[in-house]
Amino acid sequence: MTQPSPLHTSAASGADHLRLDGISRSFPDRRVLTDVSLTVSSGEIAALIGENGSGKSTLLRIAAGLDEPDAGSVSAPGTVGLFHQEPPFDLALSIDGVLDDATAPIRELARLVEVEGQAMADGEPGAAPRLHTAIEAAERHHAWELDHRVDQVVAGLGLAQLPRDRPASELSGGQLSRLSLAWLLLRSPDTLLLDEPTNHLDDAATRSLVELLRGWSGPVLLASHDRAFLDEVGTTLLDLDPAPRPFASVRHDHDSPGSGFGVTKFTGNYTAYLQHRQDERERWVHRFRDEQGELARLRARVRADHTVGHPGREPRTEGKMAKKFYADRNAKVVSRRVNDAETALERLEQDQVRKPPARMRFVGLAGQASGGSQAPAAGPVLTATHVAVARRLAPTSLSLGSRERLLVTGANGSGKSTLLSVLAGQLEADGGAITRPDRLHVALLSQEPLWRDDAQTVRTAYATAVGLDRAERTPLATFGLIAGRDADRPVGSLSVGQRRRLDLAVLLADPSDVLLLDEPTNHLSLLLVTELEQSLPDYPGAVVVASHDRWLREGWTGERLHLEGHA
């Protein structure tokens, strides 16, 4: 079945920048975006960041014309292309067919130059400006070096070793994702939108993508969890999480627990932004605390200032003129003080910042779940001896201690996910042996979210997965992974990152002896990824992590296993 193409031509093709103005978007059960405005200039690479569910993917879909905002407008230069979850081509096509489909419009631009050149040679009226326009378009889309560009993109994204006649339907999820990215890059849209482009890229593929993006002539807007990638490629960060901005005052906050208002722009890399964001949060908390204290003081003053002097005490003289004098003076003082206090109170009530939203805090891999790992205190709990899977995993051996931390690395296709599936008992190896105690509990967090009934609420899906008794003993809220406002939403309305949060909560509700994490940084928010990494030493059993994430790998202190790939 042919998927809807994420490529369209903007009505504002004469612009040289991407502009989103006052974008708001609500769904039946929540508001996602409120008054978001941003501009990305040609040659700029802007990165959207924010918590899972903050609206990054929704904003990209709106920018691509695949979703309509409730309010606001979008303008962009020329063609607009989005890389997202769905392949933009017919899965029945071969790899060669996909590449031909991607490059067909570019080849047409080169052909058009020849047509207009011949028209000019023939003296056709108006041919000269048409030829100039055709040449400009062909150069902008790299039409003259297209064959070289195809080889560069295919090799750079780790697809060169695949037979060109293989149908796309036979590719693995990671290969299909990289082929979809290749299709979009070769299609060369003027405005490039990318949703988690590095999820299935190894170091070499990420370097290739970075090189291509740095040479992109039009605006680039992307959402990514990859901290090293953001540091390397992003020229601007756009944070969708709430921040203390003038339009975020309480008078504009219609009791929405959803996204923040607008967007916070930061020019600099992600490392610098982490400190900036922490400082901003502290200032917000302090300002809110100080304002609430001042509001309480002003309200008390308004109440007290309605009475001035000593109401139970008579004037020093009983004369009528004296009584009137004191009464008039008292009334003027009361009126002035009350007016001053009420004016100050009204102004502060109008302009006070809204309360900083309680940030969801992940309690860590140890969690607060009952039970706990039953792994023995010493000795290996899981041993793999020369385990192999044809065309997917070369013979591999490892031995895990009860509290060991093992990082599995390797290029795309080297067998990282396959190894974890074998260790989890979800895939049978063609050769070798797995040795483990009969009652050893092994759990796997897969790269992509598990299938769950989309109609079920998140709370119900959790209870279904872990059992009613365990769900009562260890409620979903225990782990700080799913916001309370999202617990009664349908699973089908969750973002990919929120679905992975649910999968992780299910695993932590019944801590396993061996926890296997396959690309745990994929789709999860930057903040949660950091908290997840920091909690790895606390897990009560062994942990095996397969990851291409450079930030995670650079900070790893446990054991390592590098897979070279299969023959």
Molecular structure report:
The structure is a single chain. With 567 residues, the protein is of the alpha/beta class. It has helices at residues 56-63, 95-121, 127-140, 146-156, 173-187, 203-214, 227-233, 270-305, 320-351, 416-423, 458-466, 468-473, 496-509, 526-534, 550-554; strands at residues 7-9, 17-27, 30-41, 45-49, 71-75, 79-83, 191-195, 220-223, 236-239, 264-266, 380-389, 393-401, 405-410, 431-435, 442-445, 514-518, 542-546, 559-563. A seven-stranded mixed beta sheet has the order 1-6-7-8-4-9-10, with helices on both faces. A five-stranded parallel beta sheet has the order 15-16-17-13-18, sandwiched between helices. Strand 16, helix 14 and strand 17 form a beta-alpha-beta unit. The radius of gyration is 30 Å and the shape is flat.
Task: List key phrases describing it.
Rossmann fold; 5-stranded parallel beta sheet; alpha/beta; 567 residues; single chain
CATH C-level class of one domain is Alpha Beta
CATH names the topology of one domain as Rossmann fold
Q: Ends: how far apart?
A: 33 Å
CATH architecture of one domain: 3-Layer(aba) Sandwich
**Total beta strand runs:** 18
Which blocks of ≥5 consecutive residues have pLDDT under 50? 244-260, 368-375
* Biggest sheet, spatial arrangement of strands: 1-6-7-8-4-9-10
Would you tell me the overall average pLDDT? 85
Give the C-alpha Rg: 30 Å
The largest β sheet comes out as:
7 strands, mixed
* Continuous helix count: 15
- Classified in CATH, the superfamily of one domain is P-loop containing nucleotide triphosphate hydrolases
Q: What portion of the residues fall into strands of 2 or more residues?
A: 15-25%
Q: Please give the share of residues in helix.
A: 25-40%
Using the alpha-carbon principal axes, give the shape.
flat
Structural class: alpha/beta
Keywords: ATP-binding, Nucleotide-binding, Repeat
InterPro entries: AAA+_ATPase, ABC_transporter-like_ATP-bd, ABC_transporter-like_CS, ABCF, P-loop_NTPase
Pfam families: ABC_tran
GO molecular function: ATP binding
